[in-house]
Amino acid sequence: MTVTTEDFEKLPVVPYSQARNTPDGLRTGDILLFHSTDFGSEMTEIFTDSLWCHAAFVWNIAEADRVLLLESVEKIGVRAMPMSAKINGSPASPKPYGGGLLVVRHDDMALHPDPAKVHAMTEFALDRIGYPYSQQELNSIMERIALAKIGA
Question: Cα angle at 73 between 108 and 123, to 5 degrees?
Fold first, then answer.
């Protein structure tokens, strides 16, 4: 399902504390889409013809009462970080996230996700923590975007 800017702007704003603590709240495997207004993010959104500049997976560790993001960032690679730190800021990066966020859930994860699939997905992501961005893959992505922009 495509979410337009108009659709996104009509969605109710749910505070993180509420989304985190509801029975159908943030679950492992949910996808967090980021929309931002800083220059780099806007350029990403313009060149990719997308409302989204970044994406991450939610990893809910109920046993530890923590919700983490599994994401890949350019200078670090794949990392796990507390979702609260990404949204509300932290001592290392005190500024709260200034953009919009959308949590989406794949149909296969909606009602009763298969624990084996959740385990496999989590294992796959965790095994990649610390993997850097591949400069070759970044170049390939930029090339595909440029070719699409010029209609090639």
Answer: 40
